[in-house]
Write a structure and sequence with these properties.
Order of helices and strands: HEEEEHEEEEEEHEEEE
Number of strands: 14
Helix content: 10-25%
Strand content: 35-45%
Length: 262
């Protein structure tokens, strides 16, 4: 269970910048516009999430999926320190018979718990900002709301024998983005050859490749297809095979399957 928490926490860092959308031109993660006005945060979450007292909590709007499970997020600013913040949520969940996993430092903190009743991983991420304020991001990752196949980008090939998939996908009304990482046992050079060939066979256009000077163990291949841009980073694994990271942005098609009620 702790391994699951650690994986989830790594992706909550991305959620903390408010619904990332990858921009190729400057390699930044950007926020989606918040056009829905939720006047009551208690009506936002589909599962039970505790409300921290004395703060103005704001929903982070947009559809988000982590490993194909729906994710909902919100945030608030407070001058309470990480120990006080995590103590509040830890008490709330332990009184329900749950077992939170936490890590706290003077300037940050995170706490995660798996709620078997809601079938959701609930995470609190704390990061210090200026003037002794802390930004707190709450996220519920709901296992029971897996509404579509793992790979929404069905025209992106994976090399044979790929495994260990971790995905993060997000969208708003006119933009979607995906960040998928996985491994395979194929060599670095063979992966480069495979993706250059397979992407073209799937209708993608090869644009360019990027690598750092004097670094021959990592390379990024850039492709485009209509309004979509795909970047495939291939890095030699220290033990064997390769690590693949795929970043895709699409300004044309929504992530959610047609006809599926949100």
């Amino acid at each position: 269970m702790k391994l699951k928490y650690l994986i989830i926490i790594s992706y909550i860092v991305l959620v903390a910048v408010f619904g990332f959308f990858y921009e190729n031109k400057n390699s930044e993660l950007k926020a989606s516009p918040m056009k829905v006005n939720y006047t009551n945060i208690d009506n936002y979450y589909d599962v039970d999430m505790p409300r921290y007292p004395g703060v103005n909590e704001t929903p982070i709007i947009g559809e988000q999926y982590i490993n194909n499970a729906r994710a909902q997020s919100s945030y608030f600013i407070t001058n309470d320190n990480p120990l006080e913040i995590t103590a509040y949520y830890e008490k709330y969940w332990t009184e329900q018979g749950l077992e939170p996993f936490k890590k706290i430092t003077p300037n940050s903190g995170n706490l995660s718990v798996y709620d078997y009743k809601d079938r959701a991983t609930k995470t609190i991420l704390i990061k210090k900002e200026s003037n002794n304020n802390y930004r707190v991001v709450l996220t519920a990752i709901i296992d029971s709301k897996m509404k579509r196949e793992f790979n929404a980008f069905s025209d992106i090939p994976q090399n044979k024998g790929s495994y260990g998939f971790i995905s993060y996908e997000s969208e708003d009304e006119n933009y979607r983005a995906s960040d998928i990482s996985y491994f395979n046992h194929t060599s670095f050079n063979q992966n480069v050859i495979f993706y250059k060939k397979a992407m073209l066979e799937n209708g993608w256009k090869f644009n360019t490749e990027r690598s750092l000077p004097k670094v021959n163990i990592s390379k990024t291949l850039v492709f485009s297809k209509g309004k979509k841009v795909a970047e495939i980073n291939i890095t030699k694994n220290n033990t064997s095979g390769s690590i693949i990271r795929l970043l895709v942005k699409d300004r044309n098609v929504g992530l959610i399957m047609t006809g599926v009620k949100k």
